[in-house]
Amino acid sequence: MRYQTVAHILGWLLIVFAALALFPLLTAFSLDERMARNAFAMTIGIAVFCGGALILATRGAGTIDVRREGLLVVAAFWLLLPLLAAIPFVLSGNVRTLTAGYFEAVSGLTTTGATVFTEITLLPRSVVLWRGLLQWTGGLATLIAWAILVAPDVRSAPFDPSLAPVTLQKGKRQKGTRWLPRSVYAALLPLYGGLTAACFVGLAVAGLPAFDAICLAFATVSTGGFMPRDGALVSYGSEAALWIITVFMITGAISLIWLRGVFNRQMHVVRASPEPYWIITGLALLVGYLISVALISNMNGSVGSLIDALAVIVATAASHLTTTGFYVSDPIHTQLPLVLVMALGFVGAGRYSTSGGVKFQRVGVMLRAAYREFHHLVFPHAAVGGARSSVERTLATESAIWVNFFVVIAAVTTLALVMSTSGLNLTSSLLAAISAIGNVGPAYDLASSSDIAGRLGYDEMTSPAQFALAMGMVFGRFEVLALLTLFNAAYWRA
Question: Which of 153, 319, 366, 454 is the most buried (most CB within 10 A)?
């Protein structure tokens, strides 16, 4: 393990964070937000000092094995850097405890969207911008993470992360590079940045204020869900903005590799994954369900005609399906059953995207395996087609996905039990656990109404409960089998 190389990269990550904090610092100066200005200035000073010290102390650290040291860098990003990102929340006086600030920072960097703030309008604009920047950076980090752990060459369709934990073979090291291969930058940064810019321009043209448009663009493309102000999306009064946000939520939930294949007309990449079509089908089914509920419950009087309400319905469906968690409109959100909200948060959307959850394609693989086993029980002597090597690869794939699934189930169960000790009832504990591990934090607030006994807001939870949820968010962002590598003693000895 080249710890000097890991420290060197962490130093540069701190410098990047300092550069990001310049934007809210300038905002605080322009709006004369004194406490926030001092908080961001101190954050930049700490980041530059610590980052510069690490860089200077580890000069000439050598190359990095992206499948070994890269895993430790990813872990440090989601566990340690939120401590730095939490400083502006604490020093500006907007949170009561360091744990609450850490919770907010982890929620942003993991694109979960859970928040301890109950009145966003009262926050300094610089702090609101910082929250948006954290989510956007976290979305990009999510995409880079699977590139580090799974597919250094992202020009082609990569393997499933759940099938590719870091391998440790004594005496054999993968040839590394100092930074990620150029193909990562070429595939990820322009497309992710371009989608964000397009979303911002669309929202600005739709009539939203420039500040709100950029914060919503950050939260939409990253499928994060942080709102720049209190209230629902419909409060902006722009149907066009709802459609734009819906389109980019779906875009953020679809594999970036697949999207790049579409833009570059690489049809072999497009045909390689049916998952985007499953996501669109799931969205259509959810929209159909909401429309039928609207018709049955005669909701036309509350949200206008069905045609006018269609944008609200589609945006609500996309918000839950993509694990973004935007609060679109109260009359629509209240029609979603709690069980359905939990299921959507648990499944999530697409692989190699910024969305959370187990992912559509993995659920499809498990269902296919279950069907095959059932068929084998009914017809035990039926011949299995395909070459032996192909069958073995299929069984290995399914086994890895089932292991991934059961580890996630165990994590949700454990976190729910922990939350139940903090004053929440069983339903709220389970919903909070799924919201954290599925990285769809706002679902807890959207689905848990105030009349549910034992329901507490994120801001009302104890510090241990907030910290436990923050760890659940980090767990949800890691690919499970790669995360388990950190608990392998051979990993640290390599």
Answer: 319
CA distance 165 to 404: 11
Question: pLDDT digits over 151-209, tens only?
Answer: 443 333 344 444 343 333 333 444 443 444 455 555 677 888 999 999 999 999 999 99
Please name the amino acid found at residue 263.
F
Q: How far apart are CA 494 and CA 312, in angstroms?
A: 53
pLDDT score recorded for residue 128: 95
Q: Is the pLDDT of residue 38 over 60?
A: yes
Top-confidence residue, 244 or 178:
244
Q: With 80 as the cut, is the pLDDT of residue 388 above it?
A: no
Of 164, 138, 137, 199, give the one whose Cα is nearest residue 66. Answer: 164
Are the beta carbons of 2 and 64 closer than 8 angstroms?
yes
Written as six digits, the tokens of 476 are: 């949800």
242's tokens = 């709802």
pTM of the model: 0.86
Contact 348, 357 (CB under 8 A): yes
Q: Are residues 233 and 333 in contact, defined by beta-carbon separation less than 8 angstroms? A: no
Cα separation, 430 vs 417, in Å, equals 8
Q: Could you tell me how far CA 451 lies from the centroid of its own chain? A: 29
**CA dihedral sign of residues 399, 400, 401, 403:** positive
Distance CA 145, CA 267 (A): 25
- The Cα 322–Cα 319 span in angstroms is 6
**pLDDT over 90, % of the chain:** 33
Q: 251: which residues sit within 8 A by CB, 6+ positions away?
A: 195, 221, 259
Residue 232 pLDDT: 87
Which of 307, 233, 83, 258 shows the shortest CA–CA distance to 158? Answer: 258
